């Protein structure tokens, strides 16, 4: 990627949603190799603040609140500014909202200004809200969903209720997207039966399918998801840049991810700050050095995300920059397809992972792997 | 008698229910604390590379992932036998990394999670009947602490000034962590034997600049006493009495000035700490300072029977020297390990005295009160048995009941401050005790958290600018074979309290057992096999749901305060399962 284009992408990171003109955005997207995304930009942004207030309902399933933490770290704009600029009413967010569930002798009391359960009932009834889901959904035990019960309702049932009248559904983080860490392989995973909203690991058909609800879902995976990925996607939906569901076929990849942030033809490795060491075949085998982390298990060649360009937390760093291997947390098989985290991929068998996932990952990484071998042969004087 | 239930208790991490029986006088006579989720984090480390633990256990909690990662790294240092040789500069990087996160976590708790309840309409009702003073105080409360998307009587309330200003600071602190750890949450920089990233001179300069920006926020909003004066006269005070006198005299000065002006603004010297320190407490505010009213937060959330509670700390933050002793954190940590009884007597901490009960949890175990390493975890699989309305004699939570020497333990900032004998918090605790209050209550719990933030800010500057030396050794190599048939213990302090990880590896060097005992389990625990309620339950029983004004079952603000004062983290607290019981040693159990 040329420096000029890289700068454009950086610009994308720092610009205000509303001032982000179509041309700049298109160029940036083109740079990311997501040309199909361009077609979805049908209209310029006109007087966005005149838009009617958009309601946002943010539900938490089985999660660690890491993605909410991440979105609170959003840079420019920050979360509060973004909500104001986009005229968003964050109606409900369990970690932030003023309300809570209040019951007297088993009945809901007070009103929606203090009682979250009344607020949600009213919001679902009124409809026209964007639903964000953070965290996975347990189907167990025995299909009952009772491994998570909030406000006297299984989360499975709450999701059904919330999804029904949502105008768009966004699954934030590895857990909501694919099940994430709660779906990691184990001999009890079948009993907890955790699912993502629209996928179970890399298989399409998550909890919504179980519930018989056929609605499109945008996945923003990552453990956690980058705040830009979340806010820019929500911004694009709210501003009408992304039409749901018409645009989604061209916009999203096979795993429901916006190609603009998770480009099919770009991996974290491409722009890794340690890339020069890789090219010279300088591989660190102990932590704390400046070299390439491939031999410490880095999965950046398999991770389709723009982390290395966008970077994290005000663009100050990223995982590999700080000397830790990339764990490919944006991929549908995470964490299973990334484990063992500190062992290089070629030393790991593919047993236990989904062939389809491996194949797809391998296509993107093939050139990279070939490169590693080439470098090694050179090093050995072959 | 009315059943008043808060479900979900929002503005915490995770999903929690509090169910209470309340009399006509508003006093709670019975309470159950229920964790509502079963995460199934189990077994993911079984037969795996132990090193994955530092990454994967971070996913237990996204609010304090660093604490889990670091506790796991301590256990791994022990497992690979390198704890005694971790370079001092790596230990300082870990301190900086954890210290920044603890400050960010406390700030989030104070401003985003706990603070909004100070803008609850219950206070408006009472304060606005108290003339100019009451109106001025209410104006400050709602003007500082109102959350986003907040409405009152149908009218949108602007976001509070402190709340609004705190969000960018939290972000700044996380950015500072990312600078030395890759990203936040989910950093990548922990590894047994050291740390993966040696901060450069430029990084140190940048960290110092972050520090100054955060301190600028502190001096504008949080604390109006010059920071060094505060530290010298509280944390560094020669006695608890002197620390308490310094604070009460400072507050008295503010109160005297405000008597005529009714100006309780930040400009008039009322930082958020001063404001809460004066108005939060009946004893301090009304009895000592002579204020006409207070929020009476010292009258709720206390323990009625001091023989049924203790304050537990495992110890955190390394001293600046190479290596540390993983088995005995008392000697080489800045925050020491220890146990303080309900009557404020000091004891030595012994990890062997920890047991767990599942008598009131959703598990069908054959034995109870076992050491955590021997515990069973056989969950209910019959959906009908997972019920939350059966009362105190039933099984009603996914949380287990950890006990120290058979006694429920409060962990967290208050427990830490008591264990290091921090003068201000210790002095306040003693004062409350002498005046017939519980030493621990919503007010002292919050002040301890605020004071710990100040202390960490002070220590952080030392770690960054004095102790840490760029260019020093940052790690020692580990021998993967050293893990074979070995065990490791990691004892540490998360923002919310004492955190322990235990790991065992087999003859192939792969994990055979991994366990975590987390602060949320201690704090939110249900009753144990003897029927003793957990810390939150004890603090609820006997407290009033309406600390001020008339009893309002439909707005039990006292319950909101009590539940949130512990800064509960339920994702950490909820247990995992072991369907067979006999496979317990192979299970990653998140308590």
Widest sheet: strand ordering of chain A: 2-1-5-9-13
Number of strands of chain B: 19
Helix content range of the residues of chain A, please? 25-40%
Average the pLDDT over all residues of chain A and give the rounded result: 80
Structure description:
The complex is a heterodimer of chains A (about 375) and B (about 600). Chain A is α/β, with parallel strands linked by helices and about 375 residues long. Chain A has 2 domains: about 5-250, NADH:ubiquinone oxidoreductase-like, 20kDa subunit (Rossmann fold, 3-Layer(aba) Sandwich); about 270-365, Cytochrome-c3 Hydrogenase, Chain A, domain 2 (Irregular), CATH 4.10.480. Chain A is built from 14 helices and 13 strands. Chain A is globular. The relative contact order of chain A is 0.11. Helices cover about 40% and strands about 15% of the residues of chain B. Chains A and B meet through helix 3, helix 4, strand 2, strand 3 and strand 7 of A and strand 1, helix 3, strand 4, helix 6 and strand 6 of B. Strand 3 of chain A pairs antiparallel with strand 1 of chain B.
Summarize the structure in short.
The complex is a heterodimer of chains A (382) and B (591). Chain A has 382 residues and is α/β, with parallel strands linked by helices.
What key attributes describe this structure?
heterodimer; A: 382 residues; alpha/beta; Rossmann fold; Cytochrome-c3 Hydrogenase, Chain A, domain 2; two-stranded antiparallel ribbon; globular; disordered N terminus; disordered C terminus; B: alpha+beta; four-stranded mixed β-sheet; 18 helices; 19 strands; 14% strand
Please describe the topology of this protein.
The complex is a heterodimer of chains A (382) and B (591).
Chain A: H1 3-14, H2 22-31, E1 54-60, H3 66-72, H4 79-85, E2 88-93, E3 102-104, E4 107-108, H5 116-126, E5 129-134, E6 137-138, E7 149-150, E8 153-154, H6 155-164, E9 166-172, H7 173-178, H8 189-192, E10 194-195, E11 199-200, E12 203-204, H9 207-210, E13 217-220, H10 227-238, H11 248-251, H12 275-279, H13 307-310, H14 355-379
Parallel strand pairs in A: 1-2, 1-5, 5-9, 9-13
Antiparallel strand pairs in A: 3-4, 6-10, 7-8, 11-12
Chain B: E1 2-6, E2 16-22, E3 28-35, H1 53-56, H2 65-79, H3 88-114, H4 121-127, H5 131-145, E4 150-152, E5 155-157, H6 161-181, E6 190-191, E7 194-195, H7 201-222, H8 227-233, H9 240-261, H10 272-279, H11 282-288, E8 310-313, E9 316-318, E10 333-335, E11 338-341, E12 346-347, E13 354-357, E14 401-404, E15 409-410, H12 413-419, H13 423-434, H14 442-467, E16 487-494, E17 497-505, E18 511-517, H15 519-524, H16 535-540, H17 557-565, H18 570-573, E19 588-590
Parallel strand pairs in B: 8-15, 18-19
Antiparallel strand pairs in B: 1-2, 2-3, 4-5, 6-7, 8-11, 9-10, 11-12, 13-14, 16-17, 17-18
Helix pairs in contact in B: 3-6, 3-14, 4-5, 6-7, 7-14, 9-13, 13-14
